[in-house]
User: What shape does this take?
Amino acid sequence: MATDDDDILTGLVPDPDAEPTAAERAHAKTFAELVDKTLSGRTPPAMSADDRALLEVATVIRATSGGLPLAPAKQRDLIEDVLRQAVGVGGGAGTGTSSGAMPGVVPIERARARRWAPWIVAGASTLVAAAAVVTLWLRTPSRPSAPAPPVARAVPASWTSRPTDPLIGPIPRERAGDAGARIDYIFADRLDGFRERRWSPGEPGSRGGKR
Amino acid sequence: MRLLHGVGEVSVASEPAGDQQQREELEEEQRQVSEAQQGNLDAMRPILERYARPLYGTVILPRLGDTASAEEVLRDTLATAVEKIRRFTWQGKSIYPWLRQIAINKVYDVHRQSKRSRRLADAMVHEVPVESDPQSHADAQLIADQERRAHRERIEVTMAQLQERYRTAIELRLVQELPREECARRLGVTIGTFDVLLFRAVRAFRKHFGERTAPGDFLGEHTSEERPS
Assistant: This one.
């Protein structure tokens, strides 16, 4: 007799003596191995929905017959975990703390204070950070949106770029060959301006006072 | 044939204690609840230790059929109880019915979230009364025993509907927890044939188990009760 493997949960169940199909044998073996693992406490997390439904039935039968009591260690861990969480200490399963070894559980008022403590610290830190940002923002010189036109400073003419005509004047034809002397003259003039600016105290780029 | 009897009991004592002792236990429990409500959570520890096992073994696991989920639900139940202990009103009887109702609500939430067809859950919905005799000082024990008996009766009724070989396969493998080889030997079949027998037996059990319960009954279970969670 063929089984209705396509509908394991709701299909007809064959008689015990009915010949199983290959598919049913395979599924039965899979289920038997699941039961094996479950009985040894190694229930696999992943299985088909049909297998899970059947395994739940098997577990209910076992639980009702008293075969699945809550292990004392598991119970202890659960309770410790719950109490730790209740007082805001955190903690997790499997702490293994014995029932009497845990320090006295704090009253709920103090527990609530502990629970709020991280938020208070976080809030205070946020306020300090915000105040610092505001302070920095207020102290930062405001930058105009558009660059301001350069303002001409009143500086000596010797500091500025300028023509050499006032220095050399017209060059007579007979002195045309004295270009080297003129260059030396111009160089000396520019060097004076450079030195004056370079060593002038209080001027940008100057080295005033270190002469 | 009465199966399942004589196989381990869940830890709530079956022997009724003397009235005096029960009264003292109840007074002690009231004192612990009162202390917990005043903020001393350490007072909850004896209560949780006393009722964790019956909650797990008679309320949660039989309705879920999965040990991992049952442990999670137990943890949530205890956590909710600790968190909401101030809402509990002492009415002269044990806190156990209140804890039990929290657990049932948690189980309900698990089933609702899974959105699976839960014939198993539906079948376990026909509950023993939550309320026990207010004059009794052994509410927790009575309720747990009553609930355990109700579960066993349902299992036995279902088992009685199965064919003999299916019944034997379940008895050997799931109740006595004998190895497959031993089960096959006792039934005089190969291991492969026993696997098929057990597979069919559990399928048949599941079909019969849910037949007496209308779908959706599970949803109505907590409607008449205070919902603490």
Notes: Residues 108-139 of chain A form the longest helix (32 residues).
